[in-house]
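RECORD TYPE: inverse folding
INPUT: C-alpha coordinates
STRUCTURE:
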Protein backbone atom coordinates (compact mmCIF):
# COMPACT_ATOMS: atom_id res chain seq x y z
CA UNK A 1 0.00 0.00 0.00
CA UNK A 2 2.78 2.44 1.01
CA UNK A 3 4.55 1.85 -2.28
CA UNK A 4 1.37 2.49 -4.23
CA UNK A 5 0.77 5.69 -2.32
CA UNK A 6 4.34 6.90 -2.97
CA UNK A 7 4.12 6.07 -6.68
CA UNK A 8 0.81 7.88 -6.70
CA UNK A 9 2.64 11.02 -5.53
CA UNK A 10 5.60 10.56 -7.90
CA UNK A 11 3.65 10.22 -11.12
CA UNK A 12 2.00 13.65 -10.98
CA UNK A 13 5.35 15.19 -9.94
CA UNK A 14 7.14 13.79 -13.00
CA UNK A 15 4.40 14.98 -15.30
CA UNK A 16 4.46 18.38 -13.67
CA UNK A 17 8.23 18.63 -14.25
CA UNK A 18 7.93 17.48 -17.87
CA UNK A 19 5.11 19.93 -18.38
CA UNK A 20 7.15 22.79 -16.96
CA UNK A 21 10.15 22.02 -19.16
CA UNK A 22 7.95 21.75 -22.26
CA UNK A 23 6.22 24.94 -21.31
CA UNK A 24 9.50 26.83 -20.98
CA UNK A 25 10.77 25.45 -24.30
CA UNK A 26 7.52 26.41 -25.98
CA UNK A 27 7.67 29.92 -24.59
CA UNK A 28 11.28 30.34 -25.74
CA UNK A 29 10.58 29.03 -29.24
CA UNK A 30 7.41 31.09 -29.55
CA UNK A 31 9.21 34.21 -28.38
CA UNK A 32 12.02 33.72 -30.93
CA UNK A 33 9.60 33.01 -33.77
CA UNK A 34 7.24 35.87 -32.95
CA UNK A 35 10.23 38.20 -32.57
CA UNK A 36 11.21 37.53 -36.18
CA UNK A 37 7.64 37.46 -37.44
CA UNK A 38 6.25 40.43 -35.53
CA UNK A 39 9.21 42.69 -34.91
CA UNK A 40 9.81 44.51 -38.16
CA UNK A 41 13.40 45.15 -37.14
CA UNK A 42 14.43 41.65 -36.09
CA UNK A 43 17.02 40.17 -38.43
CA UNK A 44 16.23 36.75 -39.83
CA UNK A 45 19.02 34.41 -38.66
CA UNK A 46 21.46 32.79 -41.09
CA UNK A 47 24.29 33.52 -43.51
CA UNK A 48 24.17 36.51 -45.86
CA UNK A 49 25.70 35.94 -49.29
CA UNK A 50 27.04 38.97 -51.18
CA UNK A 51 27.76 38.76 -54.90
CA UNK A 52 30.39 41.29 -55.89
CA UNK A 53 32.97 42.12 -58.52
CA UNK A 54 36.66 41.88 -57.67
CA UNK A 55 37.71 44.00 -54.72
CA UNK A 56 40.21 46.47 -56.17
CA UNK A 57 40.71 48.32 -52.90
CA UNK A 58 44.16 48.28 -51.38
CA UNK A 59 44.34 45.54 -48.76
CA UNK A 60 40.91 44.06 -49.54
CA UNK A 61 38.95 46.56 -47.45
CA UNK A 62 35.54 45.22 -48.47
CA UNK A 63 36.44 41.93 -46.82
CA UNK A 64 37.81 43.82 -43.81
CA UNK A 65 34.41 45.49 -43.35
CA UNK A 66 32.61 42.19 -43.75
CA UNK A 67 34.87 40.68 -41.09
CA UNK A 68 33.91 43.49 -38.74
CA UNK A 69 30.22 42.91 -39.44
CA UNK A 70 30.70 39.19 -38.76
CA UNK A 71 32.20 39.85 -35.37
CA UNK A 72 29.26 42.04 -34.46
CA UNK A 73 26.63 39.73 -35.98
CA UNK A 74 27.64 36.10 -35.40
CA UNK A 75 24.07 35.00 -36.20
CA UNK A 76 24.22 36.69 -39.60
CA UNK A 77 27.72 36.10 -40.85
CA UNK A 78 28.24 37.49 -44.35
CA UNK A 79 30.24 35.86 -47.15
CA UNK A 80 31.43 37.61 -50.31
CA UNK A 81 31.30 35.56 -53.50
CA UNK A 82 33.79 37.37 -55.70
CA UNK A 83 33.29 37.60 -59.45
CA UNK A 84 35.45 38.89 -62.30
CA UNK A 85 37.23 42.25 -62.28
CA UNK A 86 35.54 43.23 -65.56
CA UNK A 87 32.17 44.95 -65.41
CA UNK A 88 30.62 43.00 -68.31
CA UNK A 89 31.56 39.59 -66.93
CA UNK A 90 30.24 40.59 -63.49
CA UNK A 91 26.91 41.59 -64.98
CA UNK A 92 26.54 38.35 -66.95
CA UNK A 93 27.27 36.27 -63.86
CA UNK A 94 24.93 38.26 -61.63
CA UNK A 95 22.12 38.04 -64.16
CA UNK A 96 22.59 34.29 -64.48
CA UNK A 97 22.38 33.82 -60.72
CA UNK A 98 19.40 36.16 -60.38
CA UNK A 99 17.57 34.34 -63.20
CA UNK A 100 18.12 30.97 -61.55
CA UNK A 101 15.81 32.20 -58.74
CA UNK A 102 17.38 29.82 -56.26
CA UNK A 103 17.43 32.40 -53.48
CA UNK A 104 21.12 31.81 -52.82
CA UNK A 105 22.13 35.45 -52.98
CA UNK A 106 21.10 38.14 -50.51
CA UNK A 107 23.04 41.22 -51.62
CA UNK A 108 24.16 42.28 -55.09
CA UNK A 109 26.97 44.77 -55.57
CA UNK A 110 25.75 46.37 -58.79
CA UNK A 111 27.58 48.70 -61.14
CA UNK A 112 25.84 52.09 -61.18
CA UNK A 113 24.48 51.45 -64.67
CA UNK A 114 22.58 48.26 -63.81
CA UNK A 115 20.03 49.58 -61.30
CA UNK A 116 17.31 50.06 -63.91
CA UNK A 117 17.84 46.68 -65.53
CA UNK A 118 17.82 44.69 -62.28
CA UNK A 119 14.89 46.68 -60.87
CA UNK A 120 12.83 46.31 -64.02
CA UNK A 121 13.50 42.56 -64.16
CA UNK A 122 12.37 42.16 -60.54
CA UNK A 123 15.76 40.90 -59.33
CA UNK A 124 16.17 43.47 -56.54
CA UNK A 125 13.88 44.88 -53.84
CA UNK A 126 13.19 48.55 -53.44
CA UNK A 127 14.15 50.05 -50.10
CA UNK A 128 11.61 51.78 -47.91
CA UNK A 129 12.90 55.34 -47.81
CA UNK A 130 10.98 56.17 -44.68
CA UNK A 131 13.17 53.65 -42.88
CA UNK A 132 16.54 54.19 -44.56
CA UNK A 133 18.63 57.27 -43.85
CA UNK A 134 19.87 58.68 -47.14
CA UNK A 135 21.00 62.09 -45.85
CA UNK A 136 24.77 62.47 -46.03
CA UNK A 137 25.33 60.55 -49.26
CA UNK A 138 26.75 62.49 -52.21
CA UNK A 139 23.94 63.44 -54.60
CA UNK A 140 25.14 61.82 -57.81
CA UNK A 141 26.07 58.42 -56.42
CA UNK A 142 22.71 58.33 -54.62
CA UNK A 143 20.93 59.30 -57.84
CA UNK A 144 22.31 56.16 -59.50
CA UNK A 145 20.48 54.10 -56.86
CA UNK A 146 17.09 55.46 -57.92
CA UNK A 147 14.93 54.31 -60.75
CA UNK A 148 11.25 54.90 -61.52
CA UNK A 149 10.84 57.08 -58.45
CA UNK A 150 12.07 54.41 -56.05
CA UNK A 151 15.27 53.72 -54.17
CA UNK A 152 16.80 50.34 -55.02
CA UNK A 153 20.22 50.36 -53.43
CA UNK A 154 22.71 52.35 -51.37
CA UNK A 155 26.00 53.57 -52.86
CA UNK A 156 28.98 51.45 -51.77
CA UNK A 157 31.73 53.37 -53.54
CA UNK A 158 31.69 56.04 -56.17
CA UNK A 159 34.13 56.57 -59.05
CA UNK A 160 35.01 59.28 -61.56
CA UNK A 161 37.65 59.30 -64.27
CA UNK A 162 40.86 61.16 -63.32
CA UNK A 163 43.86 62.25 -65.34
CA UNK A 164 47.22 60.86 -64.24
CA UNK A 165 50.17 62.63 -65.79
CA UNK A 166 53.95 62.81 -65.74
CA UNK A 167 55.04 66.08 -64.04
CA UNK A 168 58.59 65.40 -65.26
CA UNK A 169 57.48 65.36 -68.91
CA UNK A 170 54.63 67.91 -69.15
CA UNK A 171 54.50 71.42 -67.75
CA UNK A 172 51.29 70.73 -65.85
CA UNK A 173 47.97 68.98 -66.29
CA UNK A 174 46.30 70.08 -69.54
CA UNK A 175 43.08 71.95 -68.87
CA UNK A 176 41.55 71.25 -72.27
CA UNK A 177 41.47 68.23 -74.57
CA UNK A 178 43.16 70.35 -77.25
CA UNK A 179 45.98 70.96 -74.80
CA UNK A 180 46.26 67.27 -73.97
CA UNK A 181 46.41 66.37 -77.64
CA UNK A 182 49.17 68.96 -78.17
CA UNK A 183 51.19 67.50 -75.28
CA UNK A 184 50.89 64.01 -76.77
CA UNK A 185 51.89 65.17 -80.25
CA UNK A 186 54.84 67.20 -78.94
CA UNK A 187 56.13 64.33 -76.82
CA UNK A 188 55.97 61.99 -79.83
CA UNK A 189 58.18 64.39 -81.75
CA UNK A 190 60.80 64.53 -79.02
CA UNK A 191 63.85 62.38 -79.82
CA UNK A 192 64.15 59.36 -77.55
CA UNK A 193 60.65 59.78 -76.13
CA UNK A 194 59.11 56.52 -74.90
CA UNK A 195 56.08 57.90 -73.04
CA UNK A 196 53.39 57.62 -75.68
CA UNK A 197 49.85 58.86 -75.54
CA UNK A 198 46.83 58.62 -73.29
CA UNK A 199 46.43 55.18 -71.75
CA UNK A 200 42.71 54.79 -71.20
CA UNK A 201 40.62 51.65 -70.90
CA UNK A 202 40.61 50.88 -74.61
CA UNK A 203 39.81 47.17 -74.70
CA UNK A 204 36.40 46.20 -76.05
CA UNK A 205 34.33 46.22 -72.80
CA UNK A 206 32.44 48.70 -70.64
CA UNK A 207 35.66 50.60 -69.98
CA UNK A 208 35.81 51.59 -73.67
CA UNK A 209 32.28 52.98 -73.52
CA UNK A 210 33.24 55.11 -70.52
CA UNK A 211 36.46 56.38 -72.07
CA UNK A 212 34.86 57.18 -75.41
CA UNK A 213 31.95 58.98 -73.76
CA UNK A 214 34.39 61.19 -71.86
CA UNK A 215 36.10 62.20 -75.10
CA UNK A 216 32.77 62.84 -76.81
CA UNK A 217 31.56 64.96 -73.88
CA UNK A 218 34.85 66.85 -74.08
CA UNK A 219 34.33 67.64 -77.76
CA UNK A 220 30.87 69.14 -77.47
CA UNK A 221 30.33 72.88 -77.53
CA UNK A 222 27.59 72.56 -74.95
CA UNK A 223 27.13 70.15 -72.05
CA UNK A 224 25.84 66.77 -73.22
CA UNK A 225 24.12 66.19 -69.91
CA UNK A 226 20.87 67.80 -68.90
CA UNK A 227 19.88 68.90 -65.41
CA UNK A 228 19.69 65.31 -64.24
CA UNK A 229 23.39 64.95 -65.11
CA UNK A 230 22.69 62.11 -67.57
CA UNK A 231 24.58 62.04 -70.86
CA UNK A 232 22.52 62.15 -74.01
CA UNK A 233 24.19 61.72 -77.40
CA UNK A 234 21.04 62.43 -79.42
CA UNK A 235 21.71 65.18 -81.92
CA UNK A 236 25.41 65.37 -81.09
CA UNK A 237 26.87 63.51 -84.07
CA UNK A 238 29.56 66.17 -84.60
CA UNK A 239 30.83 65.82 -81.04
CA UNK A 240 30.69 62.06 -81.44
CA UNK A 241 32.88 62.07 -84.51
CA UNK A 242 35.38 64.64 -83.26
CA UNK A 243 35.65 63.02 -79.82
CA UNK A 244 36.42 59.63 -81.32
CA UNK A 245 38.85 61.10 -83.83
CA UNK A 246 40.72 62.63 -80.92
CA UNK A 247 40.71 59.37 -79.00
CA UNK A 248 42.28 57.67 -82.02
CA UNK A 249 44.97 60.35 -82.17
CA UNK A 250 45.91 60.31 -78.51
CA UNK A 251 45.66 56.55 -77.87
CA UNK A 252 49.06 54.87 -77.43
CA UNK A 253 50.39 53.44 -80.71
CA UNK A 254 48.50 50.35 -81.84
CA UNK A 255 45.54 51.13 -79.50
CA UNK A 256 46.50 48.45 -76.96
CA UNK A 257 43.83 46.28 -75.32
CA UNK A 258 43.92 47.97 -71.95
CA UNK A 259 41.64 47.45 -68.99
CA UNK A 260 42.07 49.27 -65.67
CA UNK A 261 44.92 47.05 -64.45
CA UNK A 262 46.85 47.01 -67.72
CA UNK A 263 46.56 50.79 -68.02
CA UNK A 264 48.28 51.09 -64.65
CA UNK A 265 51.03 48.69 -65.73
CA UNK A 266 51.66 50.62 -68.93
CA UNK A 267 51.75 53.98 -67.19
CA UNK A 268 53.87 52.74 -64.31
CA UNK A 269 56.40 51.31 -66.74
CA UNK A 270 56.90 54.77 -68.25
CA UNK A 271 55.43 53.96 -71.65
CA UNK A 272 52.47 56.35 -71.46
CA UNK A 273 52.50 60.12 -71.06
CA UNK A 274 48.99 60.25 -69.57
CA UNK A 275 46.67 57.73 -68.05
CA UNK A 276 42.93 57.90 -67.61
CA UNK A 277 41.85 55.75 -64.70
CA UNK A 278 39.61 55.55 -61.65
CA UNK A 279 40.72 57.08 -58.35
CA UNK A 280 41.84 53.80 -56.80
CA UNK A 281 44.71 53.78 -59.33
CA UNK A 282 46.29 56.59 -57.30
CA UNK A 283 46.99 54.23 -54.42
CA UNK A 284 48.24 51.48 -56.72
CA UNK A 285 50.69 53.89 -58.32
CA UNK A 286 51.74 55.30 -54.97
CA UNK A 287 52.61 51.81 -53.72
CA UNK A 288 55.86 50.27 -54.84
CA UNK A 289 54.95 47.87 -57.59
CA UNK A 290 56.88 44.92 -58.91
CA UNK A 291 60.29 46.10 -60.03
CA UNK A 292 60.33 49.28 -57.96
CA UNK A 293 58.48 52.50 -57.33
CA UNK A 294 57.60 53.29 -60.95
CA UNK A 295 57.45 56.75 -62.54
CA UNK A 296 56.75 60.11 -60.96
CA UNK A 297 53.08 61.00 -61.35
CA UNK A 298 50.45 63.48 -60.35
CA UNK A 299 46.70 63.53 -60.67
CA UNK A 300 44.20 66.12 -61.92
CA UNK A 301 40.69 66.46 -63.28
CA UNK A 302 40.18 65.19 -66.79
CA UNK A 303 40.40 68.11 -69.22
CA UNK A 304 37.27 70.28 -68.95
CA UNK A 305 36.15 68.07 -66.05
CA UNK A 306 34.31 65.72 -68.38
CA UNK A 307 34.55 62.55 -66.30
CA UNK A 308 31.96 59.81 -66.36
CA UNK A 309 30.61 58.72 -62.97
CA UNK A 310 31.21 55.11 -62.01
CA UNK A 311 30.81 53.16 -58.83
CA UNK A 312 28.98 50.27 -57.24
CA UNK A 313 25.69 50.11 -55.35
CA UNK A 314 24.52 47.51 -52.85
CA UNK A 315 21.04 46.13 -53.44
CA UNK A 316 19.00 43.46 -51.68
CA UNK A 317 18.21 40.51 -53.91
CA UNK A 318 14.47 40.04 -54.54
CA UNK A 319 14.56 36.38 -53.59
CA UNK A 320 16.69 36.80 -50.48
CA UNK A 321 15.29 34.75 -47.62
CA UNK A 322 16.75 37.29 -45.17
CA UNK A 323 15.86 40.69 -46.58
CA UNK A 324 16.04 42.55 -43.27
CA UNK A 325 19.43 41.09 -42.38
CA UNK A 326 20.62 41.82 -45.93
CA UNK A 327 19.49 45.42 -45.69
CA UNK A 328 21.15 45.83 -42.30
CA UNK A 329 24.43 44.67 -43.86
CA UNK A 330 23.99 47.12 -46.75
CA UNK A 331 23.44 49.95 -44.27
CA UNK A 332 26.50 48.89 -42.30
CA UNK A 333 28.74 48.79 -45.37
CA UNK A 334 27.59 52.23 -46.48
CA UNK A 335 27.65 53.99 -43.11
CA UNK A 336 30.07 56.85 -42.46
CA UNK A 337 32.62 54.77 -40.62
CA UNK A 338 32.75 52.09 -43.33
CA UNK A 339 33.02 54.73 -46.02
CA UNK A 340 35.95 56.38 -44.27
CA UNK A 341 37.73 53.02 -43.98
CA UNK A 342 37.12 52.22 -47.65
CA UNK A 343 38.72 55.46 -48.76
CA UNK A 344 41.44 55.95 -46.16
CA UNK A 345 42.74 52.41 -46.14
CA UNK A 346 41.54 51.15 -49.48
CA UNK A 347 41.51 54.14 -51.85
CA UNK A 348 37.91 53.55 -53.00
CA UNK A 349 36.05 56.86 -53.30
CA UNK A 350 33.61 57.31 -50.43
CA UNK A 351 29.93 57.94 -51.10
CA UNK A 352 29.50 59.96 -47.89
CA UNK A 353 30.23 63.70 -48.02
CA UNK A 354 31.72 63.81 -44.53
CA UNK A 355 34.78 61.81 -45.59
CA UNK A 356 35.80 64.56 -48.03
CA UNK A 357 35.57 67.18 -45.27
CA UNK A 358 37.66 65.33 -42.74
CA UNK A 359 40.82 67.37 -42.15
CA UNK A 360 42.93 64.32 -41.34
CA UNK A 361 41.91 62.76 -44.65
CA UNK A 362 42.69 65.98 -46.54
CA UNK A 363 46.10 66.31 -44.90
CA UNK A 364 47.07 62.75 -45.66
CA UNK A 365 45.55 62.59 -49.15
CA UNK A 366 45.50 66.10 -50.66
CA UNK A 367 44.13 64.69 -53.94
CA UNK A 368 40.84 64.07 -52.16
CA UNK A 369 39.68 67.60 -53.10
CA UNK A 370 40.33 66.87 -56.80
CA UNK A 371 38.43 63.64 -56.38
CA UNK A 372 35.46 65.39 -54.74
CA UNK A 373 35.32 67.89 -57.60
CA UNK A 374 35.56 65.15 -60.22
CA UNK A 375 32.62 63.27 -58.67
CA UNK A 376 30.62 66.46 -58.31
CA UNK A 377 31.08 67.39 -61.97
CA UNK A 378 30.88 63.89 -63.41
CA UNK A 379 28.21 62.95 -65.92
CA UNK A 380 26.04 59.86 -65.56
CA UNK A 381 25.60 57.13 -68.11
CA UNK A 382 21.97 56.62 -69.16
CA UNK A 383 19.90 55.01 -66.39
CA UNK A 384 17.82 52.65 -68.50
CA UNK A 385 16.90 48.97 -68.45
CA UNK A 386 18.64 48.40 -71.79
CA UNK A 387 21.77 50.36 -70.99
CA UNK A 388 23.96 47.28 -71.51
CA UNK A 389 22.75 46.91 -75.10
CA UNK A 390 23.30 50.60 -75.79
CA UNK A 391 26.83 50.30 -74.44
CA UNK A 392 27.57 47.23 -76.54
CA UNK A 393 26.38 48.82 -79.78
CA UNK A 394 28.29 52.01 -79.00
CA UNK A 395 31.60 50.43 -78.15
CA UNK A 396 31.46 47.91 -80.98
CA UNK A 397 31.33 50.86 -83.35
CA UNK A 398 34.10 52.63 -81.43
CA UNK A 399 36.27 49.51 -81.37
CA UNK A 400 35.96 49.06 -85.16
CA UNK A 401 36.79 52.70 -85.68
CA UNK A 402 39.82 52.76 -83.37
CA UNK A 403 41.34 49.39 -84.16
CA UNK A 404 40.25 48.28 -87.57
CA UNK A 405 40.08 51.61 -89.34
CA UNK A 406 36.35 51.10 -89.95
CA UNK A 407 34.09 54.09 -90.55
CA UNK A 408 31.54 54.85 -87.87
CA UNK A 409 28.23 53.40 -89.12
CA UNK A 410 26.22 56.12 -90.87
CA UNK A 411 23.14 55.10 -88.91
CA UNK A 412 24.92 54.89 -85.55
CA UNK A 413 22.52 57.37 -83.94
CA UNK A 414 19.54 55.23 -85.03
CA UNK A 415 21.26 52.06 -83.88
CA UNK A 416 21.87 53.60 -80.48
CA UNK A 417 18.29 54.81 -80.19
CA UNK A 418 17.04 51.29 -81.03
CA UNK A 419 19.45 49.71 -78.55
CA UNK A 420 18.24 51.96 -75.76
CA UNK A 421 14.81 50.51 -76.29
CA UNK A 422 16.16 46.99 -76.29
CA UNK A 423 15.92 46.42 -80.03
CA UNK A 424 18.75 45.08 -82.13
CA UNK A 425 18.28 47.08 -85.30
CA UNK A 426 16.53 50.34 -85.98
CA UNK A 427 13.03 50.04 -87.34
CA UNK A 428 12.56 51.65 -90.78
CA UNK A 429 11.45 55.21 -90.62
CA UNK A 430 12.91 55.85 -87.14
C1 LIG B 1 34.63 50.85 -62.70
C2 LIG B 1 33.45 51.76 -62.45
C3 LIG B 1 32.23 51.24 -63.13
C4 LIG B 1 32.51 51.06 -64.60
C5 LIG B 1 33.69 50.16 -64.82
C6 LIG B 1 34.06 50.10 -66.28
O1 LIG B 1 34.45 49.65 -62.05
O2 LIG B 1 33.21 51.89 -61.07
O3 LIG B 1 31.14 52.09 -62.94
O4 LIG B 1 31.38 50.59 -65.29
O5 LIG B 1 34.79 50.61 -64.08
O6 LIG B 1 35.19 49.37 -66.51
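DESIGNED SEQUENCE:
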Amino acid sequence: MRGTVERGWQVPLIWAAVGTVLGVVLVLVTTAVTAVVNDPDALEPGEIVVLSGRDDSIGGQRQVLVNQWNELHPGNRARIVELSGLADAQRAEMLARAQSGRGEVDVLNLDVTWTAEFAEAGYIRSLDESRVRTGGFLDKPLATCRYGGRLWALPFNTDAGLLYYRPDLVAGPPLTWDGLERDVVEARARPGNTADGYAGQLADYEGLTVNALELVAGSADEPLAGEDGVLDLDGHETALVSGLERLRTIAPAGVPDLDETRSIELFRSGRALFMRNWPVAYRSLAQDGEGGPGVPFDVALLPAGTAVLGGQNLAVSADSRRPRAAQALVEFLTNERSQQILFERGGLPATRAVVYHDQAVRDRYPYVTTLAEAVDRAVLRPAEPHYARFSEVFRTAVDGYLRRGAQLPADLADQLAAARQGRLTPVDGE
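NOTES: The two ends are 104 Å apart (CA to CA).
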